[in-house]
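Annotated sample (chain length 363).
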Amino acid sequence: MSETDIRKIDKNMDFTTCGDDGCTWYSVDDEPFVLDGLYWRKPGGDFNRLPIGYSVSPGVDALSWHTAGAMLRFVSDADEIRIAVKLHHNARMYHMAHVGSMGFDLYCGRGNAKQYVRSAKFDHTQDEYQVPVFELQGREHKEREFTLHFPLYCGVKEFKIGLNNGATVKAPSPWCDPRPVVVYGTSIQQGGCASRPGMCHTNIMSRMLNRPFINLGFSGSGRGQPAAAELLAMVEKPAMFVLDYAANAKNDGLKETLSGFIDILRKKHPDVPILMVSVTPLADELETCACTPYRMEQTQLFLDELQKRRANGDKNIHFLDGSGLYGADWTECTVDGVHATDLGFYMIAKTMAPVIGGILERI
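Output written by the structure step:
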């Protein structure tokens, strides 16, 4: 059978490029746009999740260029919004949609009432594209608040956003609390393998809780290194630290790193809540109902750390059992037995967000 170009059969599978005409173009640093999620980035600087010159490990340093958790927020009465993007590379993986790894998606709304509008449709074989992400198309002309999520598994070299000429731009509404929730961990925390950036659980929880999140998930490389702990400790006035790196460190790595990691955080942030999370359900646990010796050992490692610190007076240390994060239908929540689908990320967020919100309400 000859090769089929699905774009010729279904127009919804095609993408449309656009030019510069008819739009006023802005950078993320132009007021009153607000770029969240890249805590250490300075105006005019690179899109990087680490401070310039800071090193954790070769893997973390490379993945720091991936813009997981970054989002551009603004209010506008625009009838059309375009983006022009240059990527550091094409991030093509067998188990992740290109929109999630190297694309953008747009939400509309304020607070915890944000709703998905559209994803960027682009040529995934290229590392540069200019495409529309919002068109009025029968919608009412009015002022809206927009949130544009950046790629999860790709670096952004250059970015600009275009609004139709004459459109107004205003600052977005403030978060309910400006203190960020800092999430550290693995490929799942980075967003593998959400179909689009807004479906990463840190982005979902940001919408649910109306709070800023800092995504410090590093695929295969978040292993509890002391340099990573020092990095998290640099965040001023965090709301909470979420430590979810067990899948990378394994049990032996947790034994070596967990206490020291928390000690480093406590030197700078003695009273900030810390939530430790064990691994999500894995496909090889299917026949054992998530009660493998490996998981039971890991759970006990976390409980021992929890009890030790509580006994020493630390009332802001908490543990969340990852075996329940996907809910009853956990076997349907991954793309490969490990990494989450959109369903998996939604279930993580639905389970974890109330825990985070409940802890923060009590302090």
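Annotation: Residues 246-268 form the longest helix (23 residues).
Annotation: The CA atoms of residues 186 and 198 lie 18 Å apart.
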